[in-house]
Amino acid sequence: MNRRLVGRTVAVAVVVLAAAIGVVAVTRGGSSDDASTTTTTPATHHHDETTTAATVPTSSTRPPPPTDERTAPIGHPPPLPAGAADLHEGVDYQFLTYQPDDHTRPVAYDPCRPIHYVVNERTAPAGAMPILKQAIAEVSRATGLEFIDDGTTTERPVEKRVLYQPERYGKRWAPVLLAWSDQAELPLLTDDSFGSGGSYGVPVDDGARSLYVTGEVAFNGPTIETDAATFAPAQRESRMRAILMHYVAHVVGLTHTGDVRNILYHGHDGRATSWAPGDLAGLAAVGTGRCYPTV
Ligand SMILES: [Zn+2]
């Protein structure tokens, strides 16, 4: 569904509320023409950030309760692979942000409602859109979270997004923005970076907890396209899909690990093309958050 867009971004009624966006960049190897010679990311290129809220939203800056909230989670993550009990948060997978009242639990999306998303296709490489759909489906399967495609947008990615944009998206939280971007638009997308991504939480339960209500990915379109061109056609799609999976996994609440087998590896460059057990354990955890029908 394409929405008719009214004007440009709504004048910034700054709603950076207890916002936690992880701005996460993954760098491309210095010589990614051959997997065996691809170098991995130096730690200095790891750009996780957590931004703390300046402003607590008032009722007038929040949308009304969602209309598509169910009474139970829409889906469930699949059973974890054998040996999953030996996987540990902080080692095999890592949460982007933790609940204020429980630093072992992740901030997550509400599994009783779908995650709506829109795509800005401005710098998308040819053929990338179906691959993005596949990446989203991979995250959906592993988390149990449902994703709904709300069509395209002209909204540009920014480092601190306005979370409620009723003139553009109606009276609901802004959908997750998946934006094909470049460094000219977003300076943190340096040439060696595939993108950045994360989500924004708002306080719930009187601030004891936080709930992700929307998120954002900025894909570095030119870099992803250049990288894909260095691989044979048979590898191109699987590598690009894996890179996009990495960023959509950031949106649902995971950050990097130091394990090269993980899609969430801090230097992931597309070599790992399917979820490792640690990725699956992390995705299952962020797929089973609490439901908040009134938020
Ligand atoms: Zn990353």
Overall description:
- With 295 residues, the chain is α/β, with parallel strands linked by helices.
- It has one domain: Collagenase (Catalytic Domain) (3-Layer(aba) Sandwich).
- Helices cover 20% and strands 18% of the residues.
- Strands 4, 5, 6, 7, 8 and 9 form a six-stranded mixed sheet that branches. Strands 1-10 form a two-stranded antiparallel sheet.
- Strand 5, helix 1 and strand 6 form a beta-alpha-beta unit.
- Helix 1 crosses helix 4.
- The protein starts with 93 loop residues before the first strand and ends in a 9-residue tail after the last helix.
- It binds zinc ion (ZN).
- Zinc ion binds next to helix 4.
- Zinc ion (ZN) binds next to helix 4.
SSE sequence, one letter per element: EEEEEHEHEEEHHEH
Largest sheet, described in full? 6 strands, mixed
Strand content: 15-25%
Number of strands: 10
The helix/strand class is alpha/beta
Mean pLDDT level:
83
Number of spatially distinct domains: 1
**C-alpha end-to-end distance:** 24 Å
Let me know the CATH homologous superfamily.
Answer: Collagenase (Catalytic Domain)
Q: Specify the overall morphology.
A: globular
Overall radius of gyration: 18 Å
Query: The CATH topology, please?
Result: Collagenase (Catalytic Domain)
Uncertain ranges: 1-56
Distinct ligands: zinc ion
DSSP helix count?
Answer: 5
Q: Which CATH architecture is right?
A: 3-Layer(aba) Sandwich
